[in-house]
Design a protein that fits this description.
The chain contains 16 helices and no strands. With 457 residues, the chain is mainly alpha-helical.
């Protein structure tokens, strides 16, 4: 009888780490490669925006593939597409083909995230959801940081880095494929209309849009900016790594502030710091590497905080049963912004030179901060004790992760006894005690019965 190696949640986290690390490494590698080839910034932006378009399409249609062939096969298909597209890049200089490969990469990454996050949702319980959620978010940013640091050890113009990126992405398939946990189904939550969110919390929708523009602009065009201002590849890797890692540093203090103060005021201050740090990058950064890295880290640390604050502001004004649906709508707004970001920032760089990236992004932050301040003056204030829980989340993932979000009150805690009825009482107690390392046997199925499905609501 065939047996599969039991892989616990640590396997899922390792898959996330490899996938995120490999993906961010390839994203930065492409930007550096195009920058060194002196490709026009607008053309670079047009290529990079295809990733965001593909990611949105993948988040919408990926679940259909998963329902048709199952989680493991779907993850294998998405990983194969992603690794294959990475290996094709150094084989051609066709801009059109690079754009198509970027779109396929976005679709594949979205599909992989849906598979991984579905698994997280299935094994989460009301006792460990918050721990799993924070572990997941920290893991994604640590992996992204590692991916940026790897850039400093390679020649971005050679084919070997693309091969290395593909190897890491393929390796992400191994831990998840060895898991013996039953795969959950994907459920689409009802969506709340954009009109309803605009009426209740327009700042949340606008901030999600701006967050998508700012983050995608940075990932797509910051490597190009660094090359244009004369950074060496090794210096560029430190510049990118520090910027990505900054979110972890600022997450805890911002979370405490958001739970003690009016969140609209926090949003104003965050956008003010984004504009200030963008100006610092422009005025001081090119003349001193330490200042460039410092201001860039502050910039991205604040930019990454815009989306979770937007979610918190929106949730404060939503009924409990609408929180998940509102989060899905905010994600779509973020996706739209991420599609517009590279086009906007590359146009600003074409008009104003490399500094145009930060001129444009700083202007977006100022406008968002000004609008938030005006809105806060005429809107009803939500008392601090009535605010929803603040969760320092990211929007690079798709809507399925909302099932794991501790703010989701619709989550149904499924006991392990129901999921795996053949477990002994001692095994269940041990599994519950070691939340991050579940050693679960594969459920037995009746003849002709399909594989059991876990459905977190």
């Amino acid at each position: 009888m065939l047996t599969r190696l039991v892989i616990s949640l640590s396997a899922l986290i390792f898959s996330v780490f490899l996938l995120m690390g490999g993906n961010t490494f390839v994203m930065t590698l492409l930007g550096v490669n195009l920058g060194l080839k002196n490709v026009e910034p607008r053309l670079i932006g047009s290529i990079m925006v295809c990733y965001s378009v593909g990611f949105v399409l993948g988040s919408l249609y990926g679940p259909r593939v998963i329902k048709r062939v199952g989680h493991i096969r779907a993850f294998a298909v998405f990983s194969a597409f992603l690794a294959s597209s990475t290996l094709i890049f150094p084989l051609t200089d066709s801009i059109l083909l690079w754009a198509l490969l970027r779109a396929l990469g976005g679709i594949a990454v979205a599909g992989c995230f849906i598979v991984i996050e579905s698994w997280f949702s299935a094994v989460a319980s009301n006792d460990n959801r918050a721990t799993l959620f924070f572990s997941y978010q920290i893991c994604t940013y640590l992996a992204a940081t590692a991916g940026q640091l790897l850039i400093g050890f390679i020649d971005p113009m050679a084919y070997i880095p693309f091969t290395l990126g593909a190897i890491v992405l393929i390796a992400a398939l191994v831990p998840l494929s060895l898991s013996r946990m039953s795969a959950p189904t994907i459920e689409h939550n009802e969506r709340i209309s954009v009109k309803a969110i605009i009426k209740q919390a327009p700042v949340g929708l606008l901030a999600a849009l701006c967050s998508g523009m700012l983050i995608s602009s940075f990932y797509a065009m910051a490597p190009v900016y660094a090359i244009k201002v004369g950074l060496k590849v090794e210096q560029l890797s430190y510049f990118m790594a520090a910027s990505v890692f900054a979110f972890i540093i600022f997450a805890l203090p911002l979370g405490r502030l958001c739970d003690r103060l009016d969140r609209s005021k926090i949003m104003v201050w965050i956008n003010g710091l984004v504009a200030f740090s963008a100006l610092g990058v422009v005025l001081v950064g090119p003349f001193h590497l330490a200042f460039l890295i410092g201001f860039s880290a502050l910039y991205m640390g604040m930019v990454a905080a815009i989306y979770p604050v937007a979610v918190a502001i929106t949730n404060d004004r939503m009924e409990a049963q609408h929180i998940v649906a509102a989060s899905t709508t905010l994600l779509l707004s973020y996706g739209l912004g991420s599609s517009l970001g590279p086009l906007f920032s590359s146009s600003m760089m074409a008009w104003f030179g490399p500094q145009g990236l930060y001129y444009g992004c700083g202007a977006i932050a100022l406008l968002l901060g000004a609008y938030t301040w005006g809105w806060s003056l005429r809107s009803k204030v939500v008392e601090v004790e009535d605010q929803a829980q603040y969760i320092p989340s990211t929007a690079e993932t798709v809507g399925v992760i909302s099932e794991l979000d501790p703010r989701n009150e619709e989550f149904v805690d499924v006991p392990l006894e129901e999921i795996y009825p053949h477990l002994e009482a001692e095994e269940i107690a041990h599994a519950q005690a070691s939340q991050m390392e579940l050693d679960l046997p594969e459920p037995e199925l009746e003849v002709g019965e399909e594989e059991s499905i876990l459905v977190p609501h």
